[in-house]
């Protein structure tokens, strides 16, 4: 998925941070990839997937949005996805993943 251009009215990006426990990364990633169009259709600008080095059963997903409204709207989409049989098959738990909405406080690509 490529990056989309951010809208000029916003200097800060909103990130929806998701932590999820999974059974198998490859199966989870294949399921995640099936929803690429849903991410595009709901204004996801970019995403990042990471895992703790000491916990391969956990994935962290960051989804970037221009606005809090777009992020909040996508939470509703995610809640529907998490109720699907496919989602249940690739998750280790049946609890909804943990969600946090983060606001970017520094310009992108600041390196020290």
Structure description:
The chain has 112 residues and is of the alpha+beta class. The protein has a single domain, classed as Alpha-Beta Plaits (2-Layer Sandwich). The protein has four helices and four strands. The protein has a four-stranded antiparallel beta sheet with strand order 2-3-1-4. A hairpin with a 7-residue loop joins strand 2 and strand 3. The longest helix has 14 residues. It is globular, with a radius of gyration of 14 Å. The N terminus is likely disordered.
Notable traits:
single chain; alpha+beta; 4 strands; 112 residues; Alpha-Beta Plaits; 4 helices
Describe the global form: globular
- Mean pLDDT equals 81
Proportion of β residues? 15-25%
Helix proportion of residues, in percent? 25-40%
Supply the number of structural domains. Answer: 1
* Secondary-structure element pattern, one letter each: EHHEEHHE
Q: Taking strands numbered 1, 2, ... along the chain, how are they ordered across the largest sheet?
A: 2-3-1-4
Main CATH class: Alpha Beta
What's the number of helices?
A: 4
Terminus-to-terminus distance: 27 Å
Low-confidence stretches: 1-9
The third-level CATH topology is: Alpha-Beta Plaits
Number of strands: 4
Structural class: alpha+beta
Give the radius of gyration: 14 Å
Gross CATH architecture: 2-Layer Sandwich
